[in-house]
Amino acid sequence: MGRYRIGVDLGGTKTEAVLLDGRRVARRERVQTPGDYAGIVGAIASLVARAADGLPGGLGSVERIGVCTPGTEYGPDRLIANSNTPSLRDMPLRRDIREALRRDDVVIENDANCFALAESVMGAGSGYDVVFGVIMGTGVGGGIVIGKRIHRGANGIAGEWGHHTLHAGGNRCYCGRSGCVETYLSGPALESRWAQMTGRAEGMPQVAGLVTQDGGIADGARGPEGARAWLEETINNFGLALANVVDILDPDVIVMGGGLSNMDVWYGAGAESVRKNVFSSLASDVPILRNKLGDSAGVIGACLI
User: Fold this and answer.
1) Domain assignment of residue 14, given as a range
2) What is the pTM of this model?
3) Fewer CB within 10 Å, N or C, the chain?
4) What is the CATH number for 89?
């Protein structure tokens, strides 16, 4: 890998760029993500230019520029599909960024794939060959890295465990189908179910404070009615969903990312639920690890594409 690379993490609310000097983050800048497509392209071009400012050869010193974003590219024009940012859908983002920067080597990758790549190279999965990276936050996604290389699949959707069916005929999903994992294990889904079962409208940071690693309610008798039933349901859904992944992929390690990855329960009772539901006892000891790179994993992964 060359000395300098620039990565951009295009998110729904913020866009961040880093300059990687070897394996060291040398510069970092973040702006609010514009609401319109032209604004997004302009913001990315501006962040890249600022990240390269001061290098001996300017942008010419940078070996590679990578951009990670929700969604995938499709077709000969590499249009964006399945993005949770409406203004990006069916737009030629790669082409327009290349034109704005006058560089034809800009690459775009799914954000979950970037997370998995970063954690496999520089994070919690660095000692493993087959890494399944999990994103649990506003949405549920995943990425597969084998031998430090992203496995995208024939159509670029490998690792999308958030849209396999957990409960047939279950909750309606924005993708048009029913019962998707995302409708049960995303932050909004968990908050909604918590409100239904406890009668308390609280955000996941508040709820997470009540949950212990071993699958209990931290404040015991003061926990709201319905809290334990909510927790049992959540742990069971987590175990079933990830056990399906383990049965198909048989990864060496699972690395958790996204805002919900900070909940200790996934690494205790949640991991035990996965082990109970896998097909073979030979796969029952797959490690489920907390990420090491935090919210920088996506942007670092973009540098490493």
Assistant:
1) 4-104
2) 0.90
3) N
4) 3.30.420.40
